[in-house]
Model the fold of this input.
Amino acid sequence: VLALAGLALLYILEHNMPAPLVQRLAAAASSDSHLVRIGRATYSLKSGLHLHQVKLFPKRVAVNALASADEIAVDLSLQPRLALRQRVRGITVSNLLVPALPPKGKSADREKPPPKPDPVIPDLPPFALTLDNPDVLGVRASRLTATVDLADKRADVGDVAIQWPDKAFAMSVAGEVSVDLTTRLVKGQVKGQAFPANILPLLANLRA
Done:
């Protein structure tokens, strides 16, 4: 009985991950041009990996965070004999904030831009993505759900459903988008309903 109780607690309880391991996760998620910071991380067999107070900063530029999230929860499969990349079943991001487009470099930087490595999209089987209360370039939604399929040089996001926070009218938007880094093409389609106030902040940020 005690052994079963111990296993149940191990399954349910969240455990704080050691700070050095959290720093290694942040370093692995960073790149030559961007820095990722993670406030803390927890893990349980039931709810998976939870990253708290995650922020993305540009390197070599003193600006506020390009993006931040209160929590990123990664649902991991416990099925045996699975590769690590195959264990991701779903990702839920709470209170994602992208306040503005990345800052433009100075004129001197534009004249002699440093060489950049070709972007690489990680190879992951399809997984469910949920954004709770996102605010991206001024566009706020109560929830966004989608299915994401990632492969080298290509990302396909399907079954996209956006629920607006307006309480008086139940409106939503659905669509899909694909990004191909080889051809440098972004294709998508969308349909649904929205108030002008839902979309205008995005247009203002794109014109800035």
Remarks:
- DSSP finds four helices and 13 strands in the chain.
- The chain has a mean pLDDT of 85.
